[in-house]
Amino acid sequence: MTLPYGSWPSPFSAADVSSSAPRIDGARFVGEEIWWGESVPSQGGRVTVRSSSGAEILPEPWNARSRVHEYGGGAWTADADGTLYFVNAGDQCVYRMPRGGVPEPLTAPGPQHGGLSLQQGRLFAVREDLRGEQHWRGIAEIPTDGSAADDDSPAWVSTYGSGFYAHPSLSPDGTRLAYTEWTEQRMPWETARIAVTRLASGSLTPVPARAALQPEWLTDDELLYADDATGRWNLHVARLGADTPPPAPTPPATTEPYVLADADTGGGLWVLGNRWYGVLDDRRIVAVRTNGADDVVLIDPESGEVRPIDVPVTGEASIDDVSGSRVLISGAGAGVDRGLWRVDLESGETTAIRGGDPVDSRWFPVARPVTFEGAHGPVHAFDYRPTNPDAAAPADERPPYIVMVHGGPTAHVSGAASAAYAYWTSRGIGVLDVNYGGSTGYGRAYRERLDGQWGVVDVDDVIAAARGLADAGLADPARIAIKGGSAGGWTVLCALVRGGAFGAGISRYGVADLRMLASDTHDFEKFYLNGLVGPLPETEDVYIERSPLSHAERIDVPVLLLQGADDKVVPPSQSEAIRDALAARGIPHEYLLFEGEGHGFRRAETIVTALEAELRFLGETFGFSPA
After folding, report:
1. pTM: predicted TM-score of the whole model, two decimal places
2. CATH superfamily of 368-622
C-alpha cells in the first residue's frame, strides 16, 4: 500500500518495545548452570538474577542494583555452590543468600557498595560513604560470615579517599590486590592508573598508565590490563618486582604492550561491571575490539594469531565470565536482539542462553555505517532507513528523520538492531544514530575532539550529519527532529538554540544550564565539566554563553521535554527552566515528569508513555497521522 511516511501501519507497539529484549546485567558460570542479572521493566525496573535451569534466583521484592558513583554496576556475584551475593537497591547493603535460602546482610546500612568480586572465596567491593561533608571511597573486603553486618566501617584493603576505584583483582597467591583508581579531578577515560597493594604490608606499587582499565593477573608477578597509551585501548602487561622494605619506596612496575590493534579493548568506565576481555587458563585472551562496531576475537599472544569468535554481537559487548574453554558474552547484534551467549572455544559451538533471537529483516533495517564531513573532521553515524514490507511512500516524498544523540557524552553507539528504532522505521520515520566527536570507539584523538568544546563540536557534528543526510536526498530537510537524553539532551537543546537544521526537538532529562549542573551534580561528574568546558570560576562566561537556557529565546521549533522526578544527575530544575522559558514566549512544547524515575527510564509504564508521547508529538509537528 502507498501511504505517507510516518503513517505506515506497524506491528511494534510501545509496550512491545518496553519488553522487547532483556537488559543483561552481568553473567556467571555457577556450577553446571549459568546465572545472569536481568532488568524487569514490568516490575519497576527491578534487577533480578535468573538461572539457565529456569529458576528465578533473586525473588521479589529484592533488587540487585548499586548506586556507587551513581551509575552503579557489578551489583551481584555468586560462588560455584550457588550462594548469591548482591547489593540491595533499597539500602545499598551487601547480602548473602544461600541456594534456596533467604538473604542475610553482610554490611551495615549507611555506605554504598558495587563492583562485587568474589575471588578465592574472598568478597571484594567498591565502597562509597557519602555521609558527612567528606565523602570516602575505596576497595573493601567484606567478610562472608556476616561478622561485619553491624559494623559500618569494615577494613579497607586499598588506599581510600575522595577519588574513585574499580576492578579489584586478587593475585593467584592471594598476597596482592590490583585495582583501577583515578582522582576526583579527572574522569577515568582521561587519566586512570593501576595500583597494586601488598595486603600484608600495605605497600603500594604503582603501574605507569594513561587511562587504565580492568587489571587481570597472568601470574603472581605479571598483571594484564587495558590502557590507551598508544591512542587506542590495547592490552599491556606489567611485571612487578619484589617489595622494598620501608622506608624505601617500592619501585614502579615495568610495563610493555602485550597485544596491539587499531581498535579499542576498553571504553568509558561509567559502570563498575564492564569487562572488555577475559583470560583463559592457557593465557589466550577473549577480547572485545571496537572500531565503530564491536568484534569479539580470540588472541594467542604467543603466536600473534587473532581470529574472530562466531558470536553475533556487534555492540555493547561484554566478556562476562570464562571457565575452561567456555565464555559468556553479552551484548547486542546487527541481526539479533540483545542477549547472552555461551561460546565453547574448543567445539566452536555458540548457544544463546537468554535473548539473542534473530530479528525479522523485513521489519528491522540493517544499520548502515555512514561518515559525513564536518567542521572538525569526519563524523561517524549509523543510518536506519524506513523499512516496512507492506507499505511504501509516494515517489516524490522524502521521509522524516530523527537524529539520535547519545548521552555521556563520552559514550558510543554501535549500529545494533533495536526494537526501539524499528518502532520508528516501521512507521516510515528514519533514524540516524550519531557518534559525534567525543564518542568512544574511534580512538583517543576522536574522543578528545570534544575537550573544551562541549556545546560546539557535538552540535557542529550533529548538524553536519543531518544536513549530509538531507543533501544526499535521504531525508526531508524540513522534517528532521533531534532527540537525546542527559548529555544528549544538552546537545539537542544547544542545536535548537543554534537553529536552522532541526524542525523539532525531544530532550530526555537534558542539561540546560551548565552552572546549575556544576552546582547540582554528583561526585562522579563533579569535575567532568572542567575538561568539557573549562574550570570555574575562570571560565564562567563560557558556561553562560554555551548554556541553552541563556539563549532559550532563540528556540523557535516545538520541543518535548521528558524528565525523571528523582534524577540526581540532571535534576528536574533543568528541564523545568527550559519549559518556563518556552512557555513565556509561546513556543509549542510539552513537559512530562515521571515520578519514581531517576536518570534513565526503567519502568515499563514510563517507557510506554514516553514513546507514545514522542510519536504523537512528531506527528503533530511534522504533519503526519500515525496509524
Report:
1. 0.93
2. Alpha/Beta hydrolase fold, catalytic domain (3.40.50.1820)
